[in-house]
Amino acid sequence: SSVQVQKSSAVVQRKSYVPSSRGEYVIAKLDDLVNWARRSSLWPMTFGLACCAVEMMHMAAPRYDMDRFGVVFRASPRQADVMIVAGTLTNKMAPALRKVWGKGWELGHGGEVGIIPNIPVLQVYDQMPEPRYVVSMGSCANGGGYYHYSYSVVRGCDRIVPVDIYVPAPCRYHPCDFSSLPPFLSFSSPSGCPPTAEALLYGILQLQRKIKRERRMQIWYRK
Questions:
Q1: Strands (E), the chain
Q2: Do the Cβ atoms of 100 and 116 come closer than 8 Å?
């Protein structure tokens, strides 16, 4: 069968997707079920580092009530599947963001990494079970923010761990062009620094949309 797609007053004929086998159809439906379960029960591991942590706590309060989306804070990384990096990540704090067995990290100016062997560092990110996700909250976590040129600050937590969602904090004192931002960074008005609780909540909703599109079991099945 065909599906009619209306686009700029023109009708384009496209064939509807048909799975190549019955097994792939079953795997696709299992993917949908697993993704629904994952996005409906996100358990963040809080990593509050500065003023953004106050807004992160505000999101858990009754006014925004993140529990209605299945988001429940956990105190242990072994029970969490999301880490919210909220605030300024310093060079001294960066090793606590990740766990490295048999080696330690020494960060230079701006987050350049050097390795010191045989120093066990027992920390957060690698203790989280797979699949795991990271939300970077605020300008400082995204790229150093106001302290970008400081000798003691990592210029973005994505230098240490892979980041899935960025929650920006546009400056309220300077004009910002929001039209150039990608969809998951777009806001109708400047939120200031730190970003508001609803900005973080919007980032969580975008993470749920990202999880909904995952096809982990299908990738495994096609190997």
A1: 2-7, 10-15, 44-48, 82-86, 103-107, 113-117, 133-137, 165-167
A2: no
What amino acid is encoded at 98 in this protein?
R
* Class of the domain covering 43-211: alpha beta
Sign of CA dihedral 77, 42, 34, 215: negative
Burial class (CB in 10 A: 0-12, 13-18, 19+), 125: buried
Percent of the chain with pLDDT over 90: 2
Read off the pTM: 0.71
Asked if 94 and 84 touch (Cβ cutoff 8 Å), the reply is: no
Neighbouring residues of 16: CB distance < 8 A, sequence distance ≥ 6: 1, 2, 3
What is the token pair recorded at 178? 């929001």
Q: Which residues pair with 155 in a beta bridge?
A: none
Sequence-ordered list of residues with C-beta below 8 angstroms from that of 206, at least 6 positions apart, any chain: 165, 183, 184
Q: 21 Cβ partners below 8 Å, 6+ apart? A: none
pLDDT tens digit sequence for 23-50: 777 878 888 888 888 888 889 887 788 8
